[in-house]
TrEMBL record:
Presence of the UniProt keyword Oxidoreductase in the record: yes
Record keyword Oxidoreductase present: yes
Any GO BP: fatty acid beta-oxidation
GO molecular function, one term: NAD+ binding
Name under which the protein is recorded: 3-hydroxyacyl-CoA dehydrogenase family protein
Length: 301
């Protein structure tokens, strides 16, 4: 491998995918002062993402949590684009945030590899897929690393840094330094299915769905149990709505294949994804999402 970039030399970032996570990650890297190209094949999705970053940061200014000048700099650092070659030219750090499908991620990163400088770090914001496999199939194992953000990325403190079998230690070190620069606290995890976070997180979510299916309690009361009894900031069903039911299903399917039966996706989750009830982003999941927040709905058993 040619010399990998030092964290202190990173100036330009490209975030691949302007969905919920890509949008939040771009906000974080732009706020840290990196020139941030936000790429998506769908130009309308990029437009919506930029608009929601503008709205979110506007609220922060109104609440007195961000200076107007800082907001202008953040917005100015964002470069929306559907031109991958333009986004990757001179890029130092790639953060791929495409849907949780191995072939999609590998295909995109192969294209990026051909377009980006050889010293660029190839980060992937996967929740559960193998970094080793992504790196090997991209033929760039040494500079491929998992950079797992949490929803909502501007608020959540953790960055799970996942080291693949072939990841160069210099890339791990640079990623840890970048994590601090963008205001996150990193943990380093070896490449095992579900890493440290998703493996534990989806178990609670899936069990809550099975409890709803079998009529243990209503969605609100299952959530309240964990919010008030365990001090989780939000219950597992509300959190599933926030993350996206489609995302949770893909993670569970992967962990079911890789680890075993305890990760079998609940039938209710499959049904709701088929019905397009994907949670907050589609307006309905275990709750109906309104301007003023989630509203309980009745679930058929
Ligand atoms: N940019 C910057 N700040 C933002 C923001 C944004 N886009 N959106 C919200 N905020 C800030 C708000 O300004 C607010 O700040 P203050 O508390 O200082 O006023 C703070 O975030 C909280 O926002 P709200 O008041 O709107 O909402 P809340 O208090 O109900 O908190 C929450 C919302 C942060 C989401 C909280 O409920 C929470 O922590 N929930 C759990 C989230 C979680 O577990 N995420 C991980 C999911 S798993 C995952 O993502 C990984 C995966 O692979 C699928």
């Amino acid at each position: 491998m040619s010399e990998v970039i030092q964290a202190s030399d990173v100036r330009r970032v490209v975030v691949l995918g302007a969905g919920t996570m890509g949008q939040g990650i771009a906000q974080v890297t732009a706020q840290a002062g990196y020139v941030t190209h936000l790429y998506d094949v769908d130009a309308a999705r990029i437009g919506r993402a930029i608009e929601s970053i503008k709205q979110a940061t506007d609220r922060l200014v109104q609440k007195g949590k961000m200076l107007n000048e800082a907001r202008s700099e953040l917005i100015g650092a964002l470069v929306p684009t559907s031109d991958l070659a333009q986004a990757c030219r001179d890029v130092d750090l790639v953060i791929e945030s495409a849907p949780e499908q191995m072939d999609l991620k590998v295909g995109l990163l192969r294209e990026v590899k051909a377009l980006a400088p050889e010293r660029a770090i190839l980060g992937t914001n996967t929740s559960s897929l193998s970094i080793t496999e992504i790196g090997t199939r991209t033929a760039a194992a040494a500079r491929t690393i998992g950079l797992h953000f949490f929803n909502p990325p501007p608020v959540m403190e953790l960055l799970e840094v996942v080291r693949g079998l072939g990841t160069d230690e210099a890339v791990v070190a640079a990623s840890l330094a970048i994590a601090k620069r963008i205001g996150k606290t990193p943990i380093v995890v070896n490449d095992m299915p579900g890493f440290a976070t998703s493996r534990l997180g989806v178990v609670i979510g899936a069990e809550a769905m099975r409890m709803l299916e079998s009529g243990v309690a209503s969605a609100e009361d299952i959530d309240r149990a964990m919010e008030l009894g365990y001090r989780h900031p939000m219950g597992p069903l509300k959190l599933t709505d926030l993350v996206g039911l489609d995302v949770r299903l893909m993670i569970l399917e992967h962990l079911h294949r890789e680890i075993g039966e305890q990760f079998r996706p609940p039938a209710i989750l499959r049904q709701m994804v088929r019905a397009g009830r994907l949670g907050k982003k589609s307006g309905e999941g275990f709750y109906r999402w309104t301007e003023s927040g989630p509203v309980p709905i009745a679930h058929k058993r």
